[in-house]
Amino acid sequence: MPLGNKKSPLTNKQIEGFWTLKSREMDEWDLKVILDDLRSMFSDKISEIKSICDQHDGSVIFDIVPSFSTDSKPALYFDNDFLDIVHYLNATIQIDMYVE
Q1: pTM (2 d.p.)
Q2: Which residues lie closer than 8 Å to 16 by C-beta, 6 or more apart?
Q3: Residue 66: CB partners within 8 Å, gap ≥ 6?
Protein backbone atom coordinates (compact mmCIF):
# COMPACT_ATOMS: atom_id res chain seq x y z
CA MET A 1 0.00 0.00 0.00
CA PRO A 2 1.51 3.39 -0.93
CA LEU A 3 2.37 5.71 1.95
CA GLY A 4 -0.02 8.34 0.59
CA ASN A 5 -3.06 6.15 1.38
CA LYS A 6 -2.31 5.74 5.09
CA LYS A 7 -2.75 8.03 8.07
CA SER A 8 0.02 8.60 10.59
CA PRO A 9 -0.87 7.07 13.97
CA LEU A 10 0.92 9.99 15.62
CA THR A 11 -0.48 13.00 13.75
CA ASN A 12 -3.65 11.62 12.09
CA LYS A 13 -2.44 13.21 8.84
CA GLN A 14 -1.15 11.61 5.66
CA ILE A 15 2.01 9.63 6.49
CA GLU A 16 5.11 11.73 6.40
CA GLY A 17 8.56 10.27 5.71
CA PHE A 18 9.89 11.24 9.13
CA TRP A 19 8.26 11.75 12.54
CA THR A 20 9.70 13.29 15.67
CA LEU A 21 8.24 13.14 19.15
CA LYS A 22 9.83 15.07 21.97
CA SER A 23 9.16 14.86 25.66
CA ARG A 24 8.70 18.12 27.42
CA GLU A 25 11.92 19.54 28.82
CA MET A 26 12.28 18.63 32.49
CA ASP A 27 14.65 19.32 35.34
CA GLU A 28 14.59 15.73 36.53
CA TRP A 29 17.17 13.30 37.91
CA ASP A 30 15.17 10.17 37.19
CA LEU A 31 15.22 9.15 33.52
CA LYS A 32 12.16 6.93 34.12
CA VAL A 33 9.96 10.01 34.60
CA ILE A 34 11.08 11.37 31.22
CA LEU A 35 10.72 8.03 29.41
CA ASP A 36 7.24 7.57 30.93
CA ASP A 37 6.26 11.02 29.62
CA LEU A 38 7.50 10.18 26.13
CA ARG A 39 5.97 6.69 26.19
CA SER A 40 2.57 8.13 27.13
CA MET A 41 2.56 10.03 23.82
CA PHE A 42 2.62 6.89 21.67
CA SER A 43 2.03 3.78 23.79
CA ASP A 44 -1.44 3.17 22.36
CA LYS A 45 -0.04 3.34 18.80
CA ILE A 46 2.94 0.96 19.10
CA SER A 47 1.44 -1.83 16.98
CA GLU A 48 0.51 0.67 14.24
CA ILE A 49 4.02 2.14 14.27
CA LYS A 50 5.54 -1.34 14.01
CA SER A 51 3.22 -2.26 11.14
CA ILE A 52 4.10 0.88 9.19
CA CYS A 53 7.84 0.34 9.78
CA ASP A 54 7.56 -3.30 8.69
CA GLN A 55 5.58 -2.44 5.55
CA HIS A 56 7.86 0.39 4.45
CA ASP A 57 11.26 -0.71 5.76
CA GLY A 58 11.20 2.04 8.37
CA SER A 59 13.03 2.30 11.66
CA VAL A 60 12.55 3.79 15.10
CA ILE A 61 15.30 5.68 16.90
CA PHE A 62 15.07 6.81 20.51
CA ASP A 63 17.43 9.78 20.70
CA ILE A 64 18.07 10.60 24.36
CA VAL A 65 19.87 13.86 25.16
CA PRO A 66 20.46 14.31 28.89
CA SER A 67 22.29 17.36 30.20
CA PHE A 68 24.35 17.25 33.39
CA SER A 69 26.31 19.80 35.39
CA THR A 70 30.00 19.21 35.96
CA ASP A 71 29.45 18.53 39.66
CA SER A 72 26.96 15.69 39.10
CA LYS A 73 27.57 12.06 38.23
CA PRO A 74 25.45 11.07 35.24
CA ALA A 75 23.70 7.72 35.26
CA LEU A 76 21.39 6.20 32.68
CA TYR A 77 19.22 3.13 33.01
CA PHE A 78 16.25 1.75 31.14
CA ASP A 79 13.36 -0.09 32.78
CA ASN A 80 11.93 -3.29 31.34
CA ASP A 81 8.82 -1.56 29.95
CA PHE A 82 10.95 0.77 27.84
CA LEU A 83 13.28 -2.02 26.73
CA ASP A 84 10.28 -4.16 25.75
CA ILE A 85 9.13 -1.35 23.43
CA VAL A 86 12.64 -0.98 22.00
CA HIS A 87 12.77 -4.72 21.35
CA TYR A 88 9.25 -4.90 19.88
CA LEU A 89 9.96 -2.05 17.46
CA ASN A 90 13.49 -3.30 16.74
CA ALA A 91 14.50 0.25 17.62
CA THR A 92 17.85 1.90 18.19
CA ILE A 93 18.78 3.93 21.25
CA GLN A 94 21.13 6.88 20.68
CA ILE A 95 22.50 8.79 23.67
CA ASP A 96 24.11 12.19 23.28
CA MET A 97 25.15 13.51 26.71
CA TYR A 98 25.91 17.15 27.42
CA VAL A 99 27.91 18.43 30.37
CA GLU A 100 27.34 22.05 31.35
Answers
A1: 0.72
A2: 8
A3: 31, 74, 76, 95, 97, 98
